[in-house]
Amino acid sequence: MSAVMMTRKVRKWEKLPGKNTFCCDGRVMMARQKGVFYLTLFLIVGTCSLFFAFECPYLAIHLSPAIPVFAILLFFFVMAMLLRTSFSDPGVLPRALPEEATFIEMEIEATNGNVPAGQRPPPRIRNVQINGQIVKLKYCYTCKIFRPPRASHCSICDNCVDRFDHHCPWVGNCVGKRNYRYFYLFTLSLSLLTIYIFTFNIVHVVMRSVNSGFVKTLQDTPGTVLEVLVCFFTLWSVVGLTGFHTYLISLNQTTNEDIKGSWSGKNRVQNPYSHKNIINNCCEVLCGPAYPSVLDRRGLMRDDLSVPTSAAEPATNSNPVPQTTKTTAPLIPNEHTPDDAKPSMADAAIAHAEKRSPSPREDKLPTLPKSSPTPTKVPPLASPETDAEASIIAKDKAL
Amino acid sequence: MATEFHNLQELRQSPSLATKVFIQRDYSEGTVCRFQIKFPSELGSRIERTLFEDTVKTLNTYYAEAEKVGGQSYMEGCLACATAYFIFFCMETRYEKVLKKISGYIQEQNEKIYAPRGLLLTDPVERGMRVIEVSVFEDRGSSGSSPSSNVSSGISQR
Q: Of residues A48, A140, A168, A231, which has the active-site annotation?
């Protein structure tokens, strides 16, 4: 059987596992389902447009021109925060490469020792002491790492996220370490904007009704009714959410920890990350350093793909593209045990030959053999080489 | 001890990788980026303990500087917030500046200390800040036996 070996340069985001979508050549990173995000955009832009169209002209003349100016500034701030939250990397932890995964497996086996046949091996947990408190680090079967403290695996995006707060469909992204402050500022500024528009709607209606009457006012500015409706319902939810997150920030907790009751105080468990001081907690979360992304999306890498020249022949595992192989780890049933096997290299090759589509993960394919402990000769990753043209190397492959 | 002089270029171009050792994170002080200073046994014969520990301690100092919540980070945060974070498109954050320094430091350490001993440090930022990966290359000066942590060589010896 013969196959043609092609080497080309791709951006790393094209090969990233997980269920994210990328835009602008890897600069923008979002979840797959974006419908609710578009709704958020529509509501904010729509309501503000109505405000600028109907209320602002009247209020600028009869009250103060500062009103629409401030509204515009607030609107731009809200949009900037929303787009920052939605488009940025929330703090995704890259999956372990095969050598690291093997190293961790060996450590686990050494810790657990010999498990008698028929017995379930103990769960993969590592205990660490943080500020005097024992914290359990769980092993992620998908990412093949022990999750750092406060990290959690988002099943919607299929990534481990550092300081995972929650997955927010309204912003179409996870909220984690890197974008939590933008999310908080978004909810805060949106609350202010909603209150602002709501207040000035009422002021406008009252002022106009004094002159023209209530019914005529509504007829002159029909947008007002719509705005008041949207603002009224938004107010309860967004202001409530802002209040909730303010509470979480003051305690230096995440939504995830709050829901799970990790630091609820029973069994004398206390939050080891809190500074026990509201000001310090707020400063750390909101004014802490801006963490850079550790997910290299726009770096270049080689993509060696084998395009079979004869029909329907699966290529053997020869390309050094780092895909985590499924190990024969004991399948302790938990939500993160991967039920679907990773696609074979042939599928990935064919998908890329047809110009970049996400590798299908729902197919049931034969599992790849466990990578042996002998280290493979993998050239160091993440070293952008000088631009080279794609080279075609004809190769004969034996099955 | 490595008897043959390796240079960094040679290691990068023709890797005869024996094994990789991973230095894990130290979470005893919370989620700040810190690596364990424990000296791994696999490196025992290749490098002096003090040299290695110094490297890790220096890296820890750099990361602590990057993540320090203090006057400078407040200024940066407030200024960025006032500009709706558009300023991040123009300027580098303090963390990114420190990461560049770290990258330079690791490169220098590799050239001066690790490559001559047949080792190679990988910048933790390329591994998600989870581990410091130390690649151990075959010691060509010796009779071809690779470091003992290689399981398959252990099996083949039986």
A: A168
